From TrEMBL:
Belongs to the RecX family. Pfam families: RecX_HTH2, RecX_HTH3. Residues 102-142 form the RecX third three-helical domain. InterPro entries: RecX_HTH_2nd, RecX_HTH_3rd, Regulatory_RecX, WH-like_DNA-bd_sf. Residues 52-92 form the RecX second three-helical domain. This is Regulatory protein RecX. It comes from Aquirufa beregesia. Keywords: Cytoplasm. PANTHER family: REGULATORY PROTEIN RECX FAMILY PROTEIN. It is found in: Cytoplasm. Coiled coil: none annotated. It comes from the Bacteria. Its main location: cytoplasm.
Length: 149
């Protein structure tokens, strides 16, 4: 293992939480062979620069708090980052401590008031589609949209 690559990886991980997939992409940019990547990943994990569980929980909290993403979109993105399903499920438990339904309701109300359409049905459809793109569950969205007049 090259110490200069270790230093770069340590800085890369210290700056922001990273997942294994991001580190592998970074290692490829350093032209590190796939057989050698495991040693770098092990070193990062042993020195607490890399922790998949910590990354997943932080990802869930930050995407919900900063971007108001729902469970479905968060789960999709974590899967795209090659996080294991068991870690995804435990990380999604973080949403139970957060105001999930209140955030959905707030998003829907804001969107309903923003849509400039005379027809209430069209406004509700646009709100529904918006919340679906944000990753919220369809049954939960329908429950809140029914309350709009």
């Amino acid at each position: 293992m090259k110490s200069e690559i270790l230093q770069k990886l340590a800085r890369y991980c210290a700056y922001q939480e990273r997942c294994v997939w991001e580190i592998q992409v970074k290692l490829e940019s350093f032209s590190v062979l796939p057989e050698e990547q495991a040693a770098y990943l092990d070193w990062l994990e042993d020195n607490n620069y890399l922790n998949q569980e910590r990354f997943a929980k932080l990802f869930v909290r930050s995407k919900f708090n900063q971007k108001s993403w729902g469970r479905n979109k968060i789960k999709f993105e974590l899967t795209r980052l090659q996080i294991k399903d068991t870690l995804i499920q435990s990380a999604l438990e973080e949403l139970k401590e957060l105001p999930y339904e209140a955030t959905l309701e707030s998003i829907l109300i804001d969107k309903f008031n923003q849509v400039k359409d005379v027809n209430d049905w069209t406004k509700k459809q646009k709100c529904y589609q918006y919340a679906m793109r944000k990753g919220f569950e369809s049954d939960l969205i329908s429950l809140y949209i029914q309350q709009f007049r």
